[in-house]
């Protein structure tokens, strides 16, 4: 299973909460109320950012082994993700969609207890030639 780890900077300043950024992954930022919350948010932000980069065919950045230029009170924390698990979860999540069918057909289907979601999924797979 593929594992990626990048260093994150957890900034604690005069304001409440913790800001997070990844120097090696520009644009990947998050925040949290406590350290534990910030760590979870950092993992989520990194996972979604890497997912988007891979989906767009972008080259993933190299990881630096050290971070310089942090402020007083800042923490440098390694954050690990499993991008293949994230991709699998995102690609297989269920999404609601609206379809339009004639009233008489809807009534007949409901009378027979037809599961619209299951039927539509099966029909689309069959149409696309995708084995279940």
Structure description:
The chain contains 4 helices and 4 strands; from the N terminus they run E-E-E-H-E-H-H-H. A hairpin with a 7-residue loop joins strand 2 (18-21) and strand 3 (29-32). It has 2 domains: 4-92, 2-Layer Sandwich (Double Stranded RNA Binding Domain), CATH 3.30.160.250; 94-132, no CATH class. It is 40% helix and 18% strand. By secondary structure, the chain is an alpha+beta fold.
Structural class: alpha+beta
The end-to-end span amounts to 24 Å
Read across the widest sheet, the strand sequence of neighbours is: 3-2-1-4
CATH class (first level) name of the largest domain: Alpha Beta
The CATH topology of the largest domain? Double Stranded RNA Binding Domain
Q: Secondary-structure element sequence?
A: EEEHEHHH
Number of domains: 2
Task: Spell out the blueprint of helices and strands.
Elements: E1 4-12, E2 18-21, E3 29-32, H1 35-55, E4 75-81, H2 83-92, H3 103-111, H4 116-128
Antiparallel strand pairs: 1-2, 1-4, 2-3
Task: Give the key terms.
132 residues; 4 helices; 2 domains; 4 strands; alpha+beta; Double Stranded RNA Binding Domain
Q: Summary?
A:
With 132 residues, the protein is of the alpha+beta class. The protein has 4 helices and 4 strands; from the N terminus they run E-E-E-H-E-H-H-H.
């Amino acid at each position: 299973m593929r594992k990626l780890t990048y260093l994150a900077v957890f900034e604690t300043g005069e304001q409440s909460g913790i800001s997070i950024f990844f120097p090696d992954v520009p644009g990947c930022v998050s925040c949290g109320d406590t350290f534990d919350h910030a760590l979870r948010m950092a993992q989520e932000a990194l996972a979604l950012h890497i997912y988007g980069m891979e989906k767009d065919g972008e080259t993933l950045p190299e990881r630096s082994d050290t971070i310089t230029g942090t402020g007083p009170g800042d923490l440098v924390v390694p954050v690990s993700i499993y991008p293949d698990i994230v991709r699998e979860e995102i690609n297989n999540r269920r999404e609601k969609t609206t379809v339009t069918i004639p009233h008489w057909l809807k009534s007949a289907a409901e009378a027979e207890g037809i599961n619209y979601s299951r039927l539509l999924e099966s029909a689309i797979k069959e149409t696309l030639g995708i084995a279940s």
